[in-house]
Write a structure and sequence with these properties.
globular, four-stranded mixed beta sheet, 2,3-Dihydroxybiphenyl 1,2-Dioxygenase, domain 1, alpha/beta, about 130 residues
């Protein structure tokens, strides 16, 4: 059977690509690796230098402009892994400092999670696996 080696990237549809790119760069320390604009789509590809995590952001000219809703069929959330409880706590402090609404760290049967949202309401998590 064929195999996979992991995730390469996630691409999110956004209502304002520059606003979202700035938000992801500022909060997560991501850097620009690619971008472009044409009549149909404006896109930015960002990468986290240490983890290699890649986030693509796409603003379609013909898009609906609706905010993200995890109750619709499709993606529910994106979880960014962290290495320790101290890192998770540090992220809580950073989110609070930036006035980003979040749920305090919650222990689940498979790890501890802090849930927050990006400017388009996409549900994001900082995740510490067991």
């Amino acid at each position: 059977m064929a195999s996979i080696t992991g995730f390469h990237h996630i691409a999110l549809t956004v209502t304002d690509v520059e606003r979202s790119a700035t938000w992801y760069r500022d909060l997560l320390g991501m850097v620009d690796v690619l971008g472009g604009d044409d009549d149909a789509v404006r896109y930015r590809v960002l990468a986290h230098p240490e983890s290699g995590c890649i986030v693509g952001l796409r603003e379609y000219t013909g898009g609906s402009g609706d905010a993200f809703d995890e109750m619709r069929t499709g993606m529910d959330h994106v979880a960014f892994a962290v290495a320790s409880a101290e890192e998770l706590s540090s992220w809580e402090g950073e989110l609070a400092r930036r006035n980003v609404t979040f749920t305090p760290a919650t222990v689940t049967p498979i790890g501890t999670v802090v849930v927050f949202r990006d400017p388009d309401n996409t549900q994001l998590e900082f995740w510490l696996p067991i």
